[in-house]
Amino acid sequence: MSDKKPKNVFREGAISSDFIGNSIYKHQTKTSIGAHNIFLGQVRADEIDGKTVAAIEYTAYEDMANQKFHDIREAAFEKFELTCMHIYHSLGTVKAGEICLFVFVSSPRRKVVFEALEYIVEAIKADVPVFGKEIFEDTSHQWKVNN
Question: Which residues form a coiled coil (predicted)?
């Protein structure tokens, strides 16, 4: 593991398509990369007990969460032959249909990006202290259960 300081992976509100596109665009000129893969986590308009989710308000223990994201990133670089990785998560309110999690990986090899991306996303869901409050169309709310 490196001694790098954990970077802040949080973005206020939804993660825009412009931000995602610009993050990917930067890697087009890297000729050692053979494959990219992305995961976009999107807020769903789930129906729960007859009420529809309109948004999720994300909160986190930011220092602890940034350290966990850093640890996941470092472990993935050790486990897989990756050239590049970006991880960003929303804080604040994200409406149904908007992006709340963006993970991007690059590697010289196609198979690696699929395996690495699944490993990273599962680790994020299991280990990172980010919490979501589901806000329903009627403005009532409840804490989200990760599943």
Answer: none
pTM: 0.93
Residue 24 main-chain phi, psi, to 5 deg = -75, -40
Tens of pLDDT along 60-100?
999 999 999 999 999 999 999 999 999 999 999 999 999 99
Using DSSP, state whether 50 is helix, strand or coil. coil
Contact 85, 8 (CB under 8 A): no
Q: Does 84 map to a domain?
A: yes
DSSP secondary structure string for all residues of 63-131 = HHHHHHHHHHHHHHHHHS--SEEEEEEEEEEEETTSEEEEEEEEESSHHHHHHHHHHHHHHHHHH--EE
Domain count, the chain: 1
Q: Is residue 78 part of a domain?
A: yes
Beta-strand pair 84-95/51-60: antiparallel
End-to-end alpha carbon distance in the chain: 29
Residue 96 lies in a domain: yes
